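Internal QA ticket QA-208
Title: Verify multi-chain structure generation after dependency bump
Assignee: T.L.

Test input:
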Amino acid sequence: MNDERSTPVTGAVLVVGGGIAGIQSALDLAESGYRVHLVESSPAIGGVMAQHDKTFPTNDCSMCILSPKVVECARHINIELHTLAEVEAISGEAGSFTVTLRNKARLVDPARCISCGACSKVCPVEVPSEYDERQSMRKAIYRPYPQAVPNTFAIDKRGTAPCKAACPAGTSVQGFIALIAQGRLAQALELARRSNPFTGVCGYICDHPCESVCSRQLYDGQPLAIAPLERYLSDWAVERGDPSLKAPPVTRSQRVAIAGGGAAGLTAAADLARLGYAVEVYEREPEAGGMMRYGVPAFRLPREVLDNEIRRISSLGVTITTNAPVDDAAALLADHQALLWASDVPTEPRSEVSGEDLPGVHTALAWLRALNSGQQEPLAGAVVVAGRGAAALDAARAVRRLGAEVTLVLPHSLAALPPWWKLEQATAEGIQVILEHTLVAIQGESAVTGVCIKPSAEPGAASLELPASTVILAPDPIATAAPQLHDAGFFAVASAGNVVDAVAAGHHAAERIHAYLNGEEIQLVPRIDPDFIALLDRSLIAEEAAQGRHHHRARTEPDEHAATMALVELGLAAEEACSEAQRCLNCGICAECYRCVDVCKSKAVDHSLQPNTTELQVGAVILTTGSQVFDARTKHELGYGRYPDVITSIEFERLLSSSGPCGGHLVRPSDGKQPRRIAFLQCVGSRDAQCGNAHCSSVCCMSAIKEAVIAQEHAKGAETSIFFMEMRAFGKDFDKYYERARDEYGVRFLRSRSAKVERNAVGELEVVYATEEDRLVRESFDMVVLSVGLEPSQGTRDLVAKLGLRSGESGFIKVGPFAPQRTSRAGVFVGGTASGPKDIPETVVQASAAAAEAGALLASARGSLATTKTFAPETNVVGVAPRVGVFVCHCGVNIAATVDVEAVREYARGLPFVAYAGRSLFACSQDAQESLKDLVIKHRLNRIVVASCSPRTHEALFQETIREVGLNPYLIEIANIRNQCSWVHADLPAEATNKAKDLVRVAVSRVVDARPLYGQTLPVTRSALVLGGGLTGMSAALLMSAQGYPVHLVEQEAVLGGNARELLKTLEGNDVPSLLADLERRIAKDANIQVHLNRRLARVEGFVGNFRSTLEDPQACGEVFEHGVIIVATGAQERRTRSYLYGQHAGVLTQRELETQLTDGRFALGDGYSRVVMIQCVESRTREHPYCSRVCCSQALKNAITLKRRYPDCEVVIVYRDIRSYGLRERYYAEARRLGVLFVHYELEPDAEGRGGLPAVNDVNGQLVVSVYDPVSQQLLELPAAHVVLSVGIAPRPEAGRLASMLKVPLNAEEFFLEAHMKLRPVEFATEGIYVAGLGHGPKFIDESLSQAAAAVSRACTVLSKDELHASGVIAHVNQASCVACGDCVAICPYGAISIVNKEVGRRVFKDCAEVNTALCKGCGACTSCRSGCITLDGLDDQQIMAQITALAAS
Amino acid sequence: MSEQASDPNFKYEVAAQPGGENLQVCFSCGTCTAGCPVTEADERYSPRRIIRKILLGQRREVLSDPLLWYCETCYACSVYCPQNVKFGDVMRALRAMAVAEGYFSPELMQRIREVDRLAHAMRLKLVQEAIDRAEDPAPAPLERAAAEIEQMIKDKAL
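Actual output:
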């Protein structure tokens, strides 16, 4: 990292993936002076950790510990969140990358959305919630989870639904169907009518291109019955007396004339009237309606439906003049500002067949027009209807109803007929249909006597004669030409194919006219982007197909109606319509019903927003794209997907969570009952070469134990059983957790991998397994939880491909040897499970480590792109009369629905010192914050009370806002009238309102006494002390130096290297001595690193940013230097043992001794038996040492593999308790077995029959013999061995205790250093500025130590990069005059901030008294329990508390 | 296990047979045994224990054991095995070795093959009978098929 760099680097970092890893990397870098772009593909950050219920081994609530980090991330000035975004490409090189991001449209403006949830309530579309693992439903407009950040809703829109895309008028078909499905008919009809004023007409006679593209037919062959649903809506309205519309006021001076009162003309008229124009329609026929009235027979379209819709249009104020043909368009245009020509009647060309002019020959449209005008007489005799026009069928059916025999001759084949030609209906009515024939001649002299027809495909074939007395020809109609006016203001619509085309043409014409008259761009219906149509593939359809039944359109019997002009098709009944609508597959997800737009008070929803791409300049990239769980359906034998009560572990987590689908009640999916017997099956999709995941997923053992324990807490009396192969409780305190689960909670552990799950005759789930003693057992359970393994997420795989990274086993990102956060591409780092399964602390460590590497790479640009917030100069309030401003929040309806907000405001106005009281819909919204600032200035307010929600989530926001107008941030008080009034007393509005008044009064009384507080500003010494010169300390020192900070590296031995001096190769085959040599060489060259050998720390004083340390120096009085941070990397050592004849027989070695002998060539197999027996867990995982040393299994595997490779005939036996080759190390376990290493399992205690237990090593006449019981073959094995190799484990350094007390940091029970938080602060101590890494923290591998070293550097840089540190203003103060120096406060303070000092407390009065180090105090208040009452907490002193109590009592 | 009974080469020999290449990767998880229809009928038979004895080098004990012939070669063990140990194939190899090393006669091997064929025929008969009577409201026991099977056994003179 110390390379000379000539090109400038960019001081910004891209972090891809917003899980805990991404959040950690982003926070570290943003706090160290870099700009961070955090990219997340979903609408919110938080990742998988947000889904978990609890974390092991401390049973912390996962969300509770994550939430503050998430919020911090969102609020950080130097972190830019890019949610719903994906990385499309990255070009450039380390130090200077260009990133292309593809941003999906959220369709909700985060700046306006105040997350009130009103949109979600009205959204009609429900889809399975990803957050709840599809166990509950969410809406199409949603927030993934209540604490989501950014706290903004998003619309899940897969695309435009095909039905909508196919509709010429752009009707939100999926939208009105979704509303029908919920019985919201008025809203559905209103939506349909937004884009189509002839919704009812279309319900009857539209061709419905929407139905032919409906995805549902790919599932069960039947599209949604969209036409009948549309008709149902209109019929429903007509039946209930469809009200007229309120005429919009005429707001514009221009007048528009429309020639033609058909669908196009009337649609345009309605649109223009709504826009405020005076519109006049001139219709040549006696009634308006055009082709709808004169072209379509009444048995297909009831006239009341048409009349109703025309009536509604005229009720908009449109004047419709009938019997008024427009002969002189130019004259009409002269006294109107625009004229729309929408009067085209399709004309029917001559068919050019002989006899066409005979009496009794008609054309179809003309004949229908006469019929529909009431001018048609009953027909008798034979009638032939022929032609390809759409009117042929209507004419034929009408003729039939007039009483004549009809033959319909069509040129089409059956297959070529458009789908809406319901020929079967015609034949059922008694119409004879002849397909694939064309009429070639009409016979007759003075009247028609018959026709000649010929097969259409063969003009040469013999003709066929049919008798006929009347012939109706139906040629394809052609459009008439509109008048050719070239005047401005003249518009025309071409004659359209069918009603919905005409409607579309009408909309379009109105738009053009409006644009012409106004010069405005308007958008009546959203344009459809052809690339954004939601086309579902079959598998997705099958998955999403709802369980609805399909309702065929009911129809009256043909005979009954064939003789009348009454309707043939009956509509849907209400329940049919509803269940038909529920068949909809929600192709688009969002149905575009726009209800969210209507209800959003802050106008945040905008469906017209488009996806886009953006480019970012960054210097480094960190991939934190994580993993996903194995798809358990592919292990079909385990029953997942077949039996509802077989669920995955992540689903079980959601089930346990109180924010989960069942509110934390543990019930099983099939019947909602509480399960009593629960089985956990481990290694599902892990350690399974057959399914492609040969690796171990590392976390499932502990997760399952935690889930079993929590399940027992949730469901009293539950019995939990965990089926496992090896219990991989390898982490810090994991083994204790395992034992507690077994011994205290009674969790049953079965060492068995179950083969299958079946359902027995009485419907119970049966787990089939073989016990270790080979008994085959079928055991029934109420519920089975599959511990599904981890594999790289799709996002990880995509990025590996896009960035050309190397991937390793199972597709995880491959990392460098001894560089677990480096990928194969320079400048691209990785954190978290993208590079292999790991649990939360390891993820956090690696994420911090990646941040450290990125920071080191970009150190020269630190601070170049980071911004700092500046605040207005502070207004003095001391000695000024309080002027309190009270802001009462409605929180949308959250508060206002229960609490009478106005009454609270009015009440507050009357309180003492209140100078202003106001209300706001959402006090936290951007505009409300701006208005608050204005009001502070206008009313000269100097104290603020906000009556809203929880200070936990919102106080910081308001504090920052008032700082911006110069008020001290401690002059604000929040009254939580939402959680404490409207929520908890939702049923008692009057009482809730009174309580809200009380809370406001209390808050005002307290804020009146508030004083401005100022946190202390502390300088920072920008250098580090690293304790311990092993690999961890060395690499920490180098990385710290690369960040640009000087380092003191202190080592008690005479050389650097520590334990690594005795190591040779890692399990993966990486060479340790050359790593060590490299580090030594680089440290020697590094002028920034001062190495202190043969030195120990003698004394340390000070606090974060300002430490002063003294080294023990045997010769001199000690070296003293100042530094800002401390990294503790003091390591651990191999445990000494006397067990198993160690030290008594030369053949007994430790693993490390074996490794050394194997390397220096001293190892010899001996003459007799060439067998080496390794014994694991020697004095580990026992009562005396109740922890796992984590590395010994892998060390044994490594040495066993070396032995087998070098001496193939040598027999190697590993006697073990659990092989803990976790994560990607599993492959070496497999490799050892493949090479022929024999594994024999033992337990610490013998079984009930006295078999098993610890192995024994005996010296039989100089020959070592190991006796161990093999449980599978159930025999006692006597194994003579040339060598017995002991895995002795790792012990803490004896001097750890001395160091811990010197630094005032804790150790755990085993005397390893105890970090601040096991999950989220794994390399920090609770004392700020001190960090821990390496073996001193607990046993771990070299790469894990190096990762921790880098993580510690990263955390330390968040301190060292600052110019100064700011302590909180809320700190404790000692009244030293009255202090009796009892020392209780010193003992109670968790931060070591109080000490007893001797100082002057009055004039020349010296005494012992307590003193608070303000830099260390965290304001927790524990010390205020002082018996002498001489400690107070600023911002929460006794006076303020008494004022509150008094105010509360004085109601 | 006494040291004398152990043959360290045994596992390599079996692993060298076609289908035996993954034998040593076995981690004794027991899914083969749990999924085995023969074990379900007779617990003395366990694929996992047989593999274990191979890995322990107990050549004589494995090859001389009559349980060797209990396997139905249904390959369920291979279906369940997460390590791709093809125990069905291993079993084939063991039988060949047992005959070659004189623990069992080739005639016995032949005779058991016939048993397998007969067993298949018997199953077909019983299934056919069950299907034929599927419509019966109260199907009688499968005595008609049983009689035919008795005849088949007599004909085979087993």
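Spot checks passed. Residues 36 and 77 of chain B are 6 Å apart (CA to CA).
Status: verified.
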